Amino acid sequence: MGNLYFEFCAEVGRFSLTVMKISLSIFFLFFTFFYIYKYVIIFHFILSLYSCMYVSLF
């Protein structure tokens, strides 16, 4: 009885560790993507601002 319980606990522990690893990797992936995306948006905004200023000069 005790052996089965420990085996079950080990299995659950392994499963939860795998889930934690997957969710952490997904979180880091999204964080990195968001970080890059934020800079892309800022860069695009500055670029459009400059192009508007450039057009208004003429």
In short:
By secondary structure, the chain is mainly α.
Structure description:
There is one protein chain. With 58 residues, the chain is an all-alpha fold. The protein has one domain (1-57). The chain is 97% helix and 0% strand. It is built from 1 helix and no strands. It has one helix at residues 2-57. The chain is rod-shaped, with a radius of gyration of 25 Å.
Low-confidence stretches: none
- Separation, N- and C-terminal Cα atoms: 85 Å
Rg for CA atoms: 25 Å
What number of domains? 1
H-E order: H
| Proportion of beta-strand residues | under 5%
Task: Summarize model confidence as the mean pLDDT.
Answer: 89
* Backbone structural class: mainly alpha
Largest sheet: none
Question: Helix segment count?
Answer: 1
Given the C-alpha coordinates, what overall shape results? rod-shaped
- The amount of helix comes to over 70%
Q: How many distinct beta strands?
A: 0
